[in-house]
Amino acid sequence: MNTIPGYTYGTPDVARSPLSDEEFELLKTTVLFSQDDVAALRMAGEVLDDQIDAVLDVWYGYVGANPHLVHYFSGKNGAPNPEYLAAVRHRFGQWIRDTTAANFDRRWLDYQHEIGLRHTRIKKNRTDGVDSAADVIHLRYLVAFIYPITATMRPFLAKKGHGEADVEKMHQAWFKAVTLTTVLWSQPFVPARDF
Question: With a threshold of 0.85, does the pTM exceed it?
């Protein structure tokens, strides 16, 4: 069992996704996600294993350089909360590992729903018991983050000497997985009949 605080992937206290297994399969089909992508993600996991801190440095540097983004990790006084940032960083690193190792099954689907809830007013700030300036991470930034989280990953995937074709397969699989997770994280923001 993972010991990262607030990290409960695979345990009973994770919210169940309202998406049926059939709907989830259709969503994977829509983003052209296949078993070839699962294999490419496994390769990416091996490539990224010892680079996760460096990836997080890039992502956190990007967030920290943009006051409108660091706001979501700041206290009511407007100053970034270092403990909150560190806790989220741990979980973000685990998310990279999970994304590259996922079976993309019901257990994974349910945990993505849990992560989505933690971005909404329903569960934001509760995992870490913080009183941040924001009680929600606005949906627009979840969606907009698809690009930087995808574009910044390619140089890391290319660092271990794989050929261009393999780097492209890993990068495309990562892009599809990030898009898929973002769609799933968006579900709690949308009325069920519209999702």
Answer: yes
Domain count, the chain: 1
C-beta of residue 69 within 8 angstroms of C-beta of residue 141: yes
Dihedral-angle region of residue 68 (phi above 0 means left; psi in -120 to 50 means alpha; beta otherwise):
alpha
d(CA 4, CA 1): 9
The domain of 171 spans: 21-194
Q: What does the block give as tokens for 142?
A: 């979840």
The answer to whether the beta carbons of residues 172 and 33 sit under 8 Å apart is no
**136-147 pLDDT, tens digit each:** 999 999 999 999
Alpha carbon dihedral 38, 42, 47, 48, in 10-degree steps, equals: 80
97 within domain boundaries: yes
User: Are residues 181 and 112 in contact, defined by beta-carbon separation less than 8 angstroms?
Assistant: yes
For 80, the 3-state DSSP assignment is: strand
pLDDT in tens, 63-122: 999 999 999 999 999 999 999 999 999 999 999 999 999 999 999 999 999 999 999 999
In this structure, is residue 12 part of a structural domain? Answer: no
Q: What CATH number has the domain bearing residue 180?
A: 1.10.490.10
